[in-house]
Structures are given as structure tokens and as C-alpha cells.
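INFO  loader      accepted 1 record
INFO  loader      residues=354
INFO  predictor   begin
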Amino acid sequence: MQSTLRGHVLLVSPLTFSYHLSISATLRSMGYAVTWWDERASSATWYKLALRLFPAMTVRWSEHSFLEKLRQLDPTSITHVLVIKGEGMSLRVLRELRKTLTTASMGLYLWDGVENVKGVAKILTAFDSVATFDPVDAKTFGWTYRPLFGRNISANKDIAAPVQFDWCFIGTIHSDRHRVIHRLRQHCGPLSKNFVFCYFQSPVMLFIRRLLDWTLWLAPKGTLSTKSMSAADVAQVVECSRAVLDVEHPRQRGFTMRTIETLLAGKKLVTTNKHILDSDLYDPSRVCVINRTNPEIPVEFLDQPYLPVHDSLRSHYSCEGWATELLLLQDNAKKCRPSSEDRATESPSKLEVI
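INFO  predictor   done
INFO  writer      dumping C-alpha cells
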């Protein structure tokens, strides 16, 4: 059985909803064995806060955790190391990965803007390739631009779901997201039919957010939760909605998975991300770009017939299309990998000198 495998991928990624499960399942369907590591040494709320606020204090514990995992791997079996975000990893750990997994290609993928990934400049030289979902970062730093993928979130198509909501939002609350949602609610008025589910990683995060954002105190009952919604329930709400709202981080230009999944599911997208206008996914029948400070959804947009996304784009924005491109990218980069002596003397990246 082992001889039929295309390779063995060490996937290091955040524990963000179930995205790592989707990626792992896709890689296995493509013929790869998969070992997954959480990019953080702990999923506890206090650790996540310490990683963001006091990264230097968490390094030693993180390094010990990763090096212990590395000792348990068969170094000859790993053909690819794919790191997503890498915020919890140090250069020391990555160099040990490189030293131990000598035949593996190593790639970094950023599904966040560089402004939101602490310490990324320190680890860039450890990778054969760097790709990002952010078109501006890609152009600025000379990285490969590769948008995210969309999972299948369609509900049961055998049963036609009646439309219950003009628009819906289901997602984690950060930055000014809830303020934008609040403004849109106010603009649409009390007669607007909408569904809002705001997720917070823990009661502590909800408490902190309430201290920073007064609109959370005005949120309708039942719209704030510290328990995530199941994929099946998300699919059902989307199926019953005319449009899905997406509010990207103010320091982000790349498209969220919500953006892609919405359009692949055949639903209209209402977004604050103006960069969608330059995307091959954009069509005025599918996408409405709104202003963060004065959001408005034109009635004619909701009433206009939806132009389906072409099958070629569906393939490109699938998880398999995403994974195939990233693994090929790092394999090709590995062939051009400089020697250890050359790497020690190579010039720092643009990001490192900013």
C-alpha cells in the first residue's frame, strides 16, 4: 500500500474550524499520506493571547513541543512540508525540519496579511517557496499569489429551501466586523430579514470584545455565541438566504473562504473587499461591494438573476486545485534550492528589511 502513495505531507496549520480536516482529506484523496501538526503548541485561549502579545515568552515551550514531535517522525517518509501561516513556529524549529527531513520540499502559505502574522519575516528563509492569498502582499514581496479554496457547503438540493433571509452572516468577530454588521442592520431597517451568528473563541474573548466594541451590547439576542455552528447548519442558513455578507479584516486584501464558498454554492456575495472587483470570480450579478462606514445593499442586486460560476473556475478554486498548485510550487522551488552555504549568505527578503 505504501508503494502506491504519491508522497507523505507534513501539514502544519492553525486549528481554524475544520479547515485542516478538509485539507488533509483532500490530500489523502490525491494519494498522499498526511501527518497534521497544530502550528501552535496549545489551543488554549491564554496561549493564543500570549503568542500575539508576548511571542518571545512562548518560543521555548513551542520549540520543545515541535522538536519532540519531530523526533517521532520517520524522516525518510516525508516528501512535503506545507506550513500554513507559521505564526507559532520559530526559525530554529524550521531549520531542524530542514536538517532532518532532507528530501522534503518546504512551502509556506499565508492565509492572512503579513501585518497580521507576527514574526513571519524571521522564518521566510527556511522555505523553498512562499505563497499568499493576498494579492497586494504577493506583488510587494515577490511571492506567488494563490487565492484560498472553497469547500462544498451546499445543502440538500433535492429539497428546495424557501428563502427566509435577504442576507446572512456567520463567522468569527474581529476588528470592526460587528460595527459593519450593526451599520448594515441600521441601514436596512427593521423590515429587513437577516440572519447573524457571531462566533467568539471563548467567553474571555467575548468579554474583551465587548469592552472594545459598544455595538456588541446592542446585538439582538441569540446572535452572539462562544459555540461554533455546525457545517450542516451553516449550509442550511446559506441555502435559505439570498446573499451572504463577508467583512474582511481592514488589513487584509485576500479573499476569505466565505467569499469563495458563497460563490461556488451559487449564492450572491455582499462584501467590503473591493479587491474582488479584479478577480475572475467577479460578476455584477454575483457580487456587491459595500462601504464599511455606510453599507447598503441595493434591492436590484438581490433581484438580479445570478450568473453561475464556470466549471473551470470551480476546479481552480477547489481544495484539490489549491493543494496541487502549492505542492507543485514548492517542488519546483526545491529543485532550485541553494546550498546551505549560499543560503547563509543570501540577501534578506523585502519583508525582512522593512
